[in-house]
């Protein structure tokens, strides 16, 4: 091999290594940029998840309050229904006692007479 040919090959090899190094540095920069973007997206998703958890916690607390209020209202409505039923029975009893003497003398029921 001639000395110029050997020098040419050395220069070409060095040039090829430099080009490869430049290509690898560019690729490394691209990968680092993609990594930063990925980390930013991950952080944003983490924040979004935290906000979703907070909304869920608030919704669950509201659901518990509503269930408690509903239970209280159901208990109150049952109590009122029982009072109403007792009052209706009492009024029916009063009506039947007040009309009992009249019904023995009258041929038709006296329930709705005025």
TrEMBL record:
A Pfam family annotated for this UniProt entry: LSU
Gene Ontology biological process: cellular oxidant detoxification
Key word Coiled coil present: yes
Residue ranges that the Swiss-Prot or TrEMBL entry lists as coiled coil: 14-76
Keywords of this entry: Coiled coil
Name listed for the protein in its UniProt record: Uncharacterized protein
Organism: Quercus lobata (Valley oak)
Gene name per UniProt: LOC115959213
């Amino acid at each position: 091999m001639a000395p110029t040919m050997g020098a040419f090959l050395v220069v070409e090899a060095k040039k090829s290594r430099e080009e490869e190094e430049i290509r690898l540095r560019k690729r490394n920069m691209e990968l680092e940029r993609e990594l930063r973007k990925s980390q930013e997206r991950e952080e944003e998703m983490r924040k979004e998840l935290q906000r979703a958890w907070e909304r869920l916690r608030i919704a669950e607390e509201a659901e518990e309050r509503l269930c408690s209020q509903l239970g209280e209202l159901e208990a109150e409505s049952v109590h009122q229904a029982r009072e109403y039923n007792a009052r209706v029975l009492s009024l029916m009893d009063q009506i039947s006692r007040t009309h009992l003497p009249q019904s023995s003398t009258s041929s038709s029921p006296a329930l709705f007479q005025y």
